[in-house]
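Holo prediction — nicotinamide-adenine-dinucleotide.
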Amino acid sequence: MVSRKKIFVLGGDGFCGWPTSLHLSRLGHDVVIIDNFSRRRIDAELGIRSLTPIVSIEQRIDAWRDVSGRQLGFHYIDIAQDPAQLTALIAAEMPDTIVHFAEQRAAPYSMRGPVEKRYTVGNNVQGTHNVLCALVECGLDTHLVHLGTMGVYGYGGAGFEIPEGYLGVEIVDKAGERHDWEILYPTRPGSIYHLTKSMDQLLFQFYAQNDKLRITDLHQGIVWGTQTEETRQHEDLINRFDYDGEYGTVLNRFLVEAAIGHPLTVHGTGGQTRAFINIQDTVRCIALAVAHPPQRGDRVKILNQIAETLRVRDLAALVSRVTGASIENLPNPRKEAAENDLVVSNATFRSLGLDPILLEEGLLGETIEISTRFADRVDLAHIRARTAWSHEERELLGRQNHTVGARTAV
Ligand code: NAD
Ligand code: USQ
């Protein structure tokens, strides 16, 4: 039996936030979405759109009321730019939990140029800090659940299983005495976007220590899939699906590429190993995190939110086997290790009962169906990833006859 909570979902109009809002609502919680539609505006700025047709937030909320009988609240607030409005709403509604998805989340977009770098740092770090500041100002014991990323650990290949957020270290002092410490795992972000998640971690550490805020930081892997049990219930509840070179994530992109007969766009050798999780498990994990808050005075609770790790070339081979798509190895526009190992602990979610969906061939079915159903909405010009991480990659791409400029020609 779930104890009913009032939950704010910051970024509740987005890819992870929308299905999470529905799931928490179905579990009986009182859900209020806060969003500034910046993601929809970036679609317009880039000339792209979700593969799936998404309706307005008002239509989404109406459709959910019709199928579930439950009401979702909504407030248009820019959490980075409107701290007073955010604080006033928190003070008035006194949420038990705030789930924070409201950040610019695409690594390639964050590396496009100075405008996007500044926007990403400003939006993400300021937004997170405004939430923390508001909780202190309101004197509330609200539990903050933040969506972080596996990318804060870096992809250098640690040589051991990556723990959940903290690393045990032994220091030997001048007298030869040994001291055991647990420190935040040294962060090695690979993009400006990932850097903002590293900065968020320090903000959380400070506010948990100084103000005894209760904070859970979920280090999530790459999310794949689209639909959840709740979003399947009505066409107007369909989740967004990014496939373009800036916002599309690797597996969903491969499935769209296969659906339109485009070769699978493997960057480099495809030796990059990454962590993955299906969107249906994202929403389950968040419900579990909401139900298991840290105590007041605890350090930040960090959980790795992943199902499994896979190499990009193995993903491509799997998609090729299932769909018959060809594979193309492209010069990598990103500055990242060509090959890395990645072993990650997800012990806490497993101990809370998560039995994650693994990427077996059968489970790709729904994403392939969605990719095929909406294939005529794909804009071929936006398939290739064109943002170079630095001058080095720009030159490499240039030599390969790609149209890449300082801020990347699309
Ligand atoms: P998304 O871009 O689809 O959703 C983010 C939402 O936040 C959007 O609706 C956007 O309009 C809103 N938003 C952004 N800045 C805001 C602001 N200043 N004020 C109010 N609203 C704002 O992204 P997503 O894929 O749903 O990701 C959600 C969170 O999960 C992000 O923080 C991301 O870093 C994290 N995450 C995502 C993935 C993934 O694969 N999608 C993986 C790991 C972690
Ligand atoms: N890649 C390809 N071909 C493509 C697209 C990507 O080979 O067409 C490669 C990339 O070079 C990279 C890997 O696939 O090595 C993953 O790229 P991605 O775009 O799927 O994922 P990433 O940029 O890491 O970001 C995504 C989300 C981000 C989240 C992160 C989780 O956009 O919000 O934080 O996954 S993680 O990767 O675990 O840090």
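READOUT: Residues 105-107, 149-151, 221-222, 249-250, 253, 265-267, 270, 272, 274-275, 312, 332, 334, 336, 385 surround sulfoquinovose-uridine-C1,5'-diphosphate (ligand 2) (CB under 6 Å).
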